[in-house]
Design goal:
By secondary structure, the protein is an alpha/beta fold. It folds into two domains: about 110 residues, Methionine synthase domain (Methyltransferase, Methionine Synthase (B12-binding Domains), Chain A, domain 1); about 120 residues, Cobalamin-binding domain (Rossmann fold, 3-Layer(aba) Sandwich). Helix content is about 60%, strand content about 10%. It contains ten helices and five strands. Strands 2-1-3-4-5 form a five-stranded parallel sheet, sandwiched between helices. Helix 9 links the parallel strand 4 and strand 5. The longest helix has 28 residues. It starts with 7 loop residues before the first helix and ends in an 8-residue tail after the last helix. It binds cobalamin (B12). The site of cobalamin has 36 residues, from helix 4, helix 5, helix 6, strand 3 and strand 4.
Length: about 260
C-alpha cells in the first residue's frame, strides 16, 4: 500500500488525532500500546531529521530537532550515538579525497558543531574528577573529531577545557601551568601539523612540567608509533579507547600498555 504524500508537519497531527480516537474507543491496554508506538515513531522521526539536517548542513534544523529530542526525553548520548555520529561519518566519508567542495564541508562542520553544542550541558558523573585540557594543534583548524572526543569525555564525567583550534605551543604550556590539568589532549589532522605535538612535549620538559600532566594524542594521521616516538603517554584512535585508557590510568589498578 502506498503512503499518501503528506507534508511532514501534518504527519504528527494525523498520528496524534488517531491516537486520541483510539484511546477514547478502545481498552487502555491497546491505547497504551499505541502510545508506545507513537513515542517510538516520534523518536525515529526526530533522529532522522537530525541526521539529514547534518548531512544537508542546516545548523538551525540540527539544533531545533535536538531540542525536540531532549524535550521528548531522549538522552544526549542516544542522540549522539544514533544520529550525530552516523551522520558525521556519512558526510566526512563523502568528503574523502582531494576533490571535495569546501563550502559544503564547512556547512556540514558548522551543523555538526551546532549539534554538539546543543547536546550540552551534560550532567556530570561525579565518579570522575579529572581535568582535561584539549585542543587542535598549531596550524590546524580541523575540529569535528576533537569536538566529538571532548563531548565523549564530558559524557564520561571528565571536566574538559577546550582551547579550540590552531592552539600554539605557548598557549598549551601557559594553560597547563595555570590550570594544572591531569591530562593534556592534542588533536592533529594534518601530517604537516602533527609535529607540533612533539614541540609541546619538548617544551613541557624544558619548563619542568612534563611529570605534572599526562599527554594524550590522537587524530587522523597520528599513530601509536608516532605517539611513542614523540614521548606521549597515551595514544587512542577514538574517544572510547581514550576513555578506557584514562579510566584505567586513574583507577591505578593497572599500568598503561607501553606505546
Ligand atoms: C572536514 C575537513 C576539513 C574542513 C575542516 C572543518 C572543521 N571545522 O573541522 C576544512 C574544509 C576547513 C578542511 C581544510 C583543510 N583540509 Co581537511 N579534511 C576534512 C575531512 C573531509 C574530514 C575530517 C573530519 O572531520 N573527520 C571526521 C572526524 C569525526 O574524524 P577525525 O577528525 O579523524 O576524528 C576522529 C579520530 O581521528 C579521533 N581523534 C581526533 N582527534 C583526536 C584527539 C584525541 C586526543 C583522541 C584520543 C582522538 C582523536 O577521534 C575522532 C572520532 O573518532 C578530511 C578527510 C576525511 N574524510 O577524514 C580532510 C583532510 C583531513 N583535510 C586535508 C587537507 C589537506 C586539508 C587542507 C590542507 C586543504 C587545503 N588545501 O586547504 C585544509 C587545511 C586547513 C588547516 N590549516 O587546518 C587532508 C589531510 C591530509 C594529511 N594527512 O595531511 C584530509 C585527510 C583530506 C584528504 N584526503 O586529503 N578540511
Amino acid at each position: 500500500m502506498s503512503t499518501p504524500n503528506v507534508e511532514r508537519s501534518q504527519k504528527w497531527s494525523i498520528i496524534n488525532l488517531c491516537s486520541q480516537n483510539i484511546s477514547r474507543r478502545y481498552s487502555s491496554d491497546l491505547a497504551r500500546k499505541v502510545g508506545a508506538l507513537i513515542v517510538e515513531l516520534k523518536r525515529d522521526h526526530i533522529l532522522s531529521e537530525i541526521a539529514s539536517a547534518i548531512i544537508n548542513g542546516q545548523a538551525n534544523d540540527v539544533v531545533k530537532f535536538i531540542k525536540a529530542g531532549i524535550k521528548n526525553s531522549m538522552s544526549a548520548e542516544e542522540i549522539l550515538q544514533a544520529a550525530v555520529i552516523p551522520a558525521t561519518k556519512r558526510v566526512t566519508d563523502d568528503f574523502q579525497g582531494a576533490d571535495f567542495y569546501i563550502p559544503d564541508v564547512l556547512l556540514a562542520a558548522r551543523a555538526i558543531k551546532a549539534g554538539l553544542k546543543a547536546l550540552k550541558p551534560i550532567p556530570r558523573d561525579s565518579a570522575q574528577s579529572q581535568k582535561i585540557v584539549m585542543g587542535t594543534v598549531e596550524g590546524d583548524i580541523h575540529d569535528i573529531g576533537k569536538n566529538l572526543v571532548a563531548l565523549f569525555f564530558e559524557f564520561a564525567g571528565f571536566e574538559v577545557i577546550d582551547l579550540g583550534v590552531d592552539v600554539t605551543v605557548f598557549k598549551f604550556l601557559q594553560v597547563v601551568r595555570e590550570l594544572r590539568p591531569d591530562v593534556l589532549a592534542m588533536s592533529a589532522l594534518l601530517t604537516t601539523t602533527m609535529g607540533s605535538m612533539s614541540n609541546v612535549i619538548e617544551q613541557l620538559y624544558i619548563h619542568h612540567m612534563r611529570d605534572e600532566v599526562k599527554v594524550l594524542v590522537g587524530g587522523g594521521p597520528v599513530t601509536r608509533e608516532f605517539a611513542g616516538y614523540i614521548g606521549a603517554d597515551i595514544y587512542a584512535e577514538n574517544p572510547h579507547e581514550a576513555i578506557g585508557l584514562l579510566r584505567q590510568l586513574f583507577s591505578r589498578k593497572r599500568s598503561l600498555p607501553e606505546l
